[in-house]
Structure formats: C-alpha cells, structure tokens
Amino acid sequence: MKIHAILGRDPDSQGLLQVTRAADQTQSRKTQDKESGKSKETREAKDLSERGKKLKEDMDELVDEIDEVLEENAEEFVKNYIQRGGE
Amino acid sequence: MAVKKVMGTEVEYGITVVNDRDFDPISSCVLLVNAYRDKTDAKILWDYDQENPLADARGFQADGEKYTPNQQENITRNKTLVNGARYYVDHAHPEYSTPECTNVLDLVKHEKAGELILERSRIEANALVPDRCQILVYKNNSDRKGNSYGCHENFLMDRRTSFKQIIEKFIPFLVSRQVYTGAGKVGSENRAGAVDYQISQRSDFFETEVALDTMVKRPIINTRDEPHADREKYRRLHVIVADSNMAEPTIYLKSGVTAIILSMIEDGAIQTDLVIRDPVKAMKEISHDTSCTKKVQLDNGKKLTAIELQEEYLDLAHKYFATREADAVTRDVIVRWESVLKRLKEDPDQLGREIDWVIKKQLIQAFMNRKNYTWDSPRVGMIDLQYHDIRPEKGLYHLLVRQEKVDRIVSDQDIEDAVYNPPEDTRAYFRGMCLKRYGSAIFGVNWDSISFNLKDQPIKRILMAEPLKGTKEHVQELLDRSTSTEELVANLTAE
Q1: What is chain A's mean pLDDT, rounded?
Q2: Do the chains contact at B366 and A16, CB–CB below 8 Å?
Q3: Could you say which of B134, B136, B201, B395 has the lowest number of CB atoms within 10 Å?
C-alpha cells in the first residue's frame, strides 16, 4: 500500500486560493545558473506574474464549473433542506 | 496497558427528496437501504439481543426502553454487508458503520467505500421514485436550521483505564482537534452567536461535558458502555463530537491522531495539566475563529490556542514513541499531524488541499470574490451543502477530486476493493466471509456474534468477543474446509 506523500510537494500544486497571495510571494525556485542579479530579478518577476495568471485562470475555470453544477433555485433548495436531528 | 486500537466510524447522512411535497425521511431511508445490491441477497436480522445502549460507563443503567424492532421491520432497516459493514436506517437518516479496522488507512478506505455504497443505492432507489422526484444524500452534519446528525468514531480501549482519566485527558484534545478535523459551516446554530463561517459543523450543538445522551443536550464525552466485545477486558469509547469529512487527509488525521492519544491515555503518558475551564464554551470559541489564534482559558490559569494545546499533545506523543515502536501508519500520522499544526500556525490557508474546513472556505471565497456574493447569499449556502453531495457529477468535493485540487490518501481502486472485501485483520473478516459464502444460511448478525440457520437443528449463535480474532490468518483454512454452515459450526465447535 502506497501512502501518497503530501509533504514537501511542489508549491504549484498547493491550495485553491493562492491567487490573491501569489502577487505577494517572494519565494520562487532557486536557479543554479550564473545570470546577473538584474536579469534574474526580471525573470523571477515574469515567472511570478505567469504563475499568478495561471492560478487566476484556474480559479476562474473552477468558479465557472461550480456555477454550472450548482443546484438551480439555491434559495428554495437550501430553505427546503430540513433534517430531523439524528444519532 | 494500551490495547490495539481497533476502530470504526458510523456516519449518518442527510437525505432529502426534491419535488416531493410529502417527503418522509424514514420511508426514503428504508427505500435507499433496501435498494442496495450487495453480493448476497440474504435476509439477515440485526441481533438486538446483544445490544444495551442504556448502560452508562460511569457504572449505572439509564432509564428508558430498549428499542427492538419486529422481525420484518428489523430486516427492512438493517443490512449487513459482505465487507463486514452495517448499512441501516437510524431514526430518520441512512447510516453506514464501517467494519472494524486496525489502522486508520483501512478506516479511510472503508469510510469512503460507505460513500460509494450510499451513492449506488441512491441511484437504484431513484429508479423507484416518480420521474419528477430525486433522492439526494449529503455527508454532512447539519441542515443549518438547528438540526444535527452525527459522525461517531469508536475505539477499543483497555477496560482498566479509569473513565475519570479519559474525561480529564481527552476533553482538551477533542475540543482543540477541530482545527484540523472540522468540515466547515456557513453561519452558526443553536444560539451559538453570529459568525460568517466556522470550522466545525458540530461544535454549536454540544451543551455539556459528559453524558449518555446523543440527541439532546449532547455531551463532549459520551458514556455509552456497550463494548460489543468482552466487557471484562474492553471498553468501546464512543466519540460523538466528530464532523463527517469528505477530504481523505482530514479523516486520516482525525481518527489517526485520536487513536494515538487514547493509547497514551491508557498508558498514563499524559501527565500535563491541560484541563480547560469551560470546554463547552471553548469548543464554540475555537470553531468560530478561522484564524486559529483565539486563546482558551485553562483551569491552571494559562491561556492556550487550540494549536498550542495540540502541540502539547504532539510533544507528549513524541516522548511516548521515543521508547516504543510505532507502526508505519502511526509514524506517518505523526509526521502529517506535526506538519499540519505548523502550517495552521503560519497560515491556515496553506491547508487548502487537505483539511475540509479550509478547502470549503477557499472554494466559497473564490466564488464570492468573482460574483460579489456575501456570506448570507443563498448560493453560498448552496455551496456549503453541495460540497457534501455524494454524487460524483454534482458534489463539489468530487469536482475538486477530478481537478486534482485535493490530496488523496487512498486510491479509487482501494475504495472499490473495500466495497466488497472486509479488512483481513479483525473479526470483520469472519463476518464478511461468512456472508459471502453462506449468505442465506445466516440468521442474524451483531458486531460480536453471528447466528447460523442449521438443518434440523436450533439456530446456533457464534460469539466473537475478541475483535482481533476471526482474522484471515485465523479462519481462512476453517472457511476453506467448511462447505456448509453445518460443517462450519461442527468444525468450529470441534476446535
């Protein structure tokens, strides 16, 4: 039986709602190459912006999908969902 | 001395029928449970003789009448399944009790198999209702109108452990564990004070610290003393505070860490004074604080957050296992527990792939940000409910699984296997295999007994007072050489 490892996972796979925080994130993958400080910063900023954009697109897509599957007449549906106490 | 933590969960599901003005939950539950096609068509009684829900762990018998349905009603309301589980009608809810498991990994598989079984019976039952109607089932704990239904966990314990010790050491753990076990809920109930969103579905409903009741004046510690095993040796601790979880890592941590803590209590390994002054109040305070920073008042004058309380237990667990061998699942549970507490402390939003209340909160917030809804918008309430919808095509948790936006613990194949196969290392194996092999010759079942119909002989009840006997290792050879119940009983009694 394999227990799927979740620790130390790729940050790209984290969380649903990282969009708003993506812009503030300063950490990105450390590169080994010897580029100048300035071009590295530019590249990191570009990476970050692309990642933020991707996350935003992912979230938009998810919200659209929720919109599609969500029960119609939510107000009535939620109002009519009445249970008897259990246990 | 800690006994092996044999464990299982009982999940009560919410049920409704859309477009049915005369919706009756009990008959809908009966329809649902009877629509399920297991690999046996046997009509087996649930053996109520073996039950005593009015026995109190504090040493007395409560007043009240024990419920025993007539034979037809019994068969209609109870199904024992080939995987060793019980699927039945409990009051006005369909309920699924997993077979006994020796570890939380098996428990996750079997609880998830329960969801699949409910969904399959729902599809079958829907073919029997008028076209305009549809039966829907939710794995949650509240209708958000003040009615709650439970998710109970059961753990085998050493009878010699003092119940007073359990109460003192376990309550602070249960009150604080909700930061990683909550299923999340929009709003509050039961006069618990207004809040937009809270961690637990259940915490608003607990009104006292210790009692036998589960339906009114719910206690944090339930004293039902019904071991379903040798009562001289064992106690079955019936934990009733849990939320029903969708996310596998949440189920895994919830019952996994709890099993560890109970072993530590049995071994006297929790000596730190963590007694909370007002646990009922603290439970609500912690649930209503999604920042997880609210400090609760301890009896000794200290104030700690739920995470700090859990860190105290974690620290004690590290010390406990410094001199003991832990199995692979236990080691994994501890690593995850530590990691989850660390990330909760830094920023709970980091748990958006693992912990239900965070997953659901982020889902709702993403939706609110795009649509400019507020917490009291009906569609926000709909998301809260539909997260728990067991239909793969409509349930929002299932949508996240499809998009690989939540972490898994087990595979789809593991879950499918658990629908038809009992765990191999508890008495559930004997129960499940007997149902598979001798289905129609079985008269009745309870957790600790099976009764067989025998040709020209009275019904024979075989007791299974030891949850760790009747395993594959113990009974496979016996089953292989017994082609009928008569042979099985003869071989069993000859041994």
Answers
A1: 67
A2: yes
A3: B134
CA separation for the pair B375, B379 (Å, rounded): 9
Per residue in B147-206, pLDDT (tens digit) is 999 999 999 999 999 999 999 999 999 999 999 999 999 999 999 999 999 999 999 999
List of residues 6+ apart from B467 with CB closer than 8 A: B6, B100, B156, B228, B229, B234, B426, B427, B448
Q: How many CB atoms lie within 10 A of CB B25?
A: 20
A5 touching B, CB under 8 A? no
- Catalytic residues of B, by residue number, are 90
Cβ-contact B47, B444 below 8 angstroms = yes
A5 neighbourhood in chain B, CB within 8 Å: none
Q: Which is nearest to B204 in space by CA: B247, B141, B162?
A: B141
- Which whole number is the average pLDDT over B24-51? 90
Q: What is the pLDDT of residue A33?
A: 47
Residues 6+ apart with CB under 8 A from B420: B39, B82, B83
Among the partner-chain residues A1, A78, A87, the one whose CB lies closest to the CB of B105 is A1
Alpha helices (H) in B439-484, listed in sequence order: 472-480
Chain B residues whose CB is inside 8 A of the A4 CB are 407-409
For residue B44, pLDDT beyond 50: yes
Best mutation target among B367, B391, B402 (most A Cβ atoms within 10 Å) is B367
Q: If you count residue pairs, one on A and one on B, with CB atoms under 8 Å apart, how many are there?
A: 144
With beta carbons under 8 A apart, name residues in chain B contacting A80.
Answer: 16, 18
In total, chain B counts a number of residues equal to: 495
Token digits of residue B73: 């009603």
CB contact under 8 A, B400 and A60: no
Asked if B4 and B468 touch (Cβ cutoff 8 Å), the reply is yes
Q: Tell me, what's the pLDDT at B419?
A: 98
Q: Quote the CA–CA distance of B495 and B493 in Å, as a whole number.
A: 5
Report how far residue B479's alpha carbon sits from residue A34's, in angstroms, rounded to the nearest whole number: 69
Q: What is the largest CA-CA distance in chain B?
A: 73
Place of tokens 């629908």: B419
Residue spans of the domains in chain B: they are: 7-359+383-418, 419-494
pLDDT tens-digit series, residues B74-130 = 999 999 999 999 999 998 999 999 999 999 999 999 999 999 999 999 999 999 999
CB atoms within 10 A of CB B53: 15
CATH 1.10.10 corresponds to the domain B7-359+383-418: no
Coil/strand/helix, residue B381:
helix
For residue B271, give Cα distances in angstroms to B77, B157, B312, B316. 45, 19, 11, 9
Residue with structure tokens 């998830």?
A: B112
